[in-house]
Each structure stands twice: as C-alpha cells, then as structure tokens.
Amino acid sequence: MSKSILIFIRNPELGKVKTRLAKSIGNQKALFVYERLLEQTRETVLKVNATRLLFYSDYISNSDRWNENDFIKYLQVSGNLGHRMQEAFEKAFQKGSHKVIIIGSDCYDLLEETINSAFNMLESSDAVIGPANDGGYYLLGMNSYTPEVFRDINWSTSSVFNETVSKFKWLNKTISILPELIDIDELSDLEASTFNQSLLQDANSTL
After folding, report:
1. CATH 3.90.550.10 corresponds to the domain 3-196
2. Mean pLDDT for the chain?
C-alpha cells in the first residue's frame, strides 16, 4: 500500500507514562488515562486505510491489544525524538510508501477524518502538519523523505511547530496545516479535551 501511518507509543507502565499529569492525579490514574489514550488511538487508526507501523518506546509486546495482523511492530531507535521519527519515516519510505504520516498517542481528539484529510492534503502539498496546543504537533506527514525537518529542532518546547514549518519553507516545500488539537500532558489539557471528566470518574471508581 502506498500510504503508511506511523504510531509512536510508550509501553504502558506505572510511573513511566504521563508523568506531568501524574503530579496532579497520581500514577495510577495517569496510567489509566494513558491506557484509554492508547485504546482511542488504536481504534482510530484501525479505521484508516493505510499500512500501520507501530513503534514501541522500550520493548515490543506480542501480548497486548495491538494485533500483529493489523500492525507491523518495531522498537523505536535510540536518540532524541527527532532522530527516532526520522528513522521511522525512512523505514516507511524504504518499504515503498508514497505518503507517510506519523502520530503519537497523546491526542484523544484526533479522529480518522483528520488523518484521512491529512493524506488527501499530501496530494497537493509536500507536507502536512497538525499543531498541538502546547506548541508541538500531533501529526506530521510528507510525500517524500525529508530528514532535514527533524534536525536542529528544540524538542519538547513550545517552538517545535513553528520551527518545523520554517524548516519546510526553507527547503521550498509546500505545507498544509490542520486544525489545532489538544495533546494531553497536563490536568488542564485533560479537562479541556473531549476525554472529559466522566472517564476520570470511572478511574476514581476503579482505582
């Protein structure tokens, strides 16, 4: 298939996920939230007609809910986020994809319609990007391998989105921009997203 979607996830382990959120709601509830984010991400990408490449943070699990019939599983390489994403894009393009999109697992409001729109935008643009509320991005796509956009970026800062857009423009690449969505990292993000308080109430009743 000429379209690929790359999914970066963290292995869901107590005390190792959503650490900023955990400062407000505790490690158990933060793990609960992240597991729900993973479930939402999985259900969303299963609706997208594309090859799905799943990249784990620490180890590949063959006993989780990410079925090997639906996802090709890899381990993220070492290095900063930019290097890890660059390697993942390179792998997808080497496998013959002509449109490649990457997402994480922090955006509860990301729907398949948005991902499909991103793929469609790659018909007329060299790249597509979805800005997150924290200054980063929740989605990045391109129709040719462009490793330069992952280099010399101040990762985990509020300037990532702007720096990345500037990189594409410096390379004379056209870029389409999707609507801004919320990455859930803090309690305020959780409250502002459609994740909503009902799921937190579920967490309160089950933990």
Report:
1. yes
2. 94
